[in-house]
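[SOLVED] Predicted holo structure with NAP

Edit: marking solved, answer below. Original request kept for reference. I posted the sequence and ligand SMILES and asked for the 3D complex as structure tokens.
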Amino acid sequence: MLHHPVVIGEAISRLSEVAWQDRDLSDGFRGTALGGFRGKRGPVNGRVGRRPCHHFNMEYRQLGHSGLKVSALSFGAGTFGGGSEFFRAWGQTGAREARKLIDICLDEGVNLFDTADVYSRGLSEEILGKAVAGKRGRVLISTKAAFPMGKGPNDVGSSRHHLTQCLEDSLRRLNTDYVDIYHMHGFDAVTPVEETLYTLDTFVKSGKVRYIACSNFSGWHLMKSLGISERYGWARYVGHQVYYSLIGRDYEWELMPLALDQKVGALAWSPLGWGRLTGKIRRGQPPPKVSRLHKTAANGPRPPEEYLYAVIDAIDEVAKETGKSVPQIALNWLLQRPTVAAVIMGARNEEQLKQNLGAHGWNLTAEQMAKLDAASKVARPYPYWHQAQFASRNPLPVADA
Ligand SMILES: NC(=O)c1ccc[n+]([C@@H]2O[C@H](COP(=O)([O-])OP(=O)(O)OC[C@H]3O[C@@H](n4cnc5c(N)ncnc54)[C@H](OP(=O)(O)O)[C@@H]3O)[C@@H](O)[C@H]2O)c1
């Protein structure tokens, strides 16, 4: 990996340099700590690693430019509810099973649980709310808004009107009076960015929202938003929930350098490539009988088949070397990437969850990381191939990208 700041502006870059150096020399914004205890650092498999220092074998990382520590592995509740054909294919976890899954997570030190208002039309939030009843103080809840929640002209987007309604509805469904991390699920280019951020700032000031984050933003969406927050002194996005996996590395071109420069923590969604890096999909084998992909493949990222199989072959090799499973390798690779504050695991059931929780507490070696990097490498789009010719002044956060 290259260890230099990404230069965007002279003043910013000086600040970044400090942040960049911090990243490797101290906890930076990927620290290991819980309740003020710091982990001792030491080599793990030849890499600089972080040893846990408390009763959980979990690493806690700071979420971007905030004081919030999130568990490096977090849990996504997209499988809760099954409220439509699409979500039924994803999962149909009810309140009782959800409670069990959440207890397993809590026992492992997972503290962050992600949902969205649109997941099963609010049912995922409702089930999550029931499942964490009596444990609210131990969990961080992340939810999202902006996507359509009705057919009316104001039932969509990031307007003050819609967001105010969305937040009240989410709080009611989650049976809580605050959301820890409130995401804009997608960018709304129709609503003035000032209106959205002013509204979010009032949520933070009211105590109903603690931190704000965005999801699926382009570089300019995020940079414009951060600039406006700074201009008015409003709450700023501290996290970016992004699609990032061994078969989806687009995040690395623009958004990762931006995240480093501006200290925005990445929360990686669909870390198994929309349910593909599960060990159940292999070259020349029929697709598994039980898989959400039968109904959802067209709605998510669609990697070219040969590329997918080449990456799976490389994961299989590493799996043999390490004795770990395909999902564990894919998740561990992500845990070692710059800017990643949390990897949002998906799991249909207890067995999948327990296996995925085994993705932390160890590290792939530098050689194994390099093998996976090489297999998943894709051609750089413009302007990144051009910038590569001026690499001394445009270093990429990951050397192979
Ligand atoms: N911000 C956004 O726009 C956005 C978008 C999508 C998701 N998310 C968040 O990210 C979370 C995770 O997303 P995701 O579910 O797409 O993640 P993923 O990790 O790409 O896929 C998870 C799926 O893979 C399969 N699986 C997982 N672990 C397995 C194991 N150990 N063995 C075999 N199969 C396994 C299961 O599907 P099968 O059993 O069907 O094979 C499971 O539902 C969501 O719950 C949500 O919170 C956010």
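OP edit: Confidence is low (pLDDT under 50) at residues 1-54. Thanks to everyone who chimed in.
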